Amino acid sequence: MENKSQKVHRKFDLQFKLEAVNQVNKGRSVPSVSKALGISDSLLYNWCKRGISVPAEKPSELESLRKQVKQLETERDILKKALAIFSRVN
To answer: Per-10-residue mean pLDDT for the chain, 90 residues long?
Structure first.
């Protein structure tokens, strides 16, 4: 005989949680998002309260890309100056 009071705990990946929280942050109500995704209101409220967000790698990746842009801009500026110098020689 099965015990019907046992609950099945589903696991949700980070991408699913991010999308749900983003929909709430964009102005949709928690009940409408939770109903559309088939989850409980309280679960979605918890995700929003905990601040489910992009993993920590993203900010460091962004910082790395900013450093790369700065390096490329510096190289471009050096090449512009070199071109100006060589074009004056002729």
So the answer is: 67 88 90 93 90 64 90 96 85
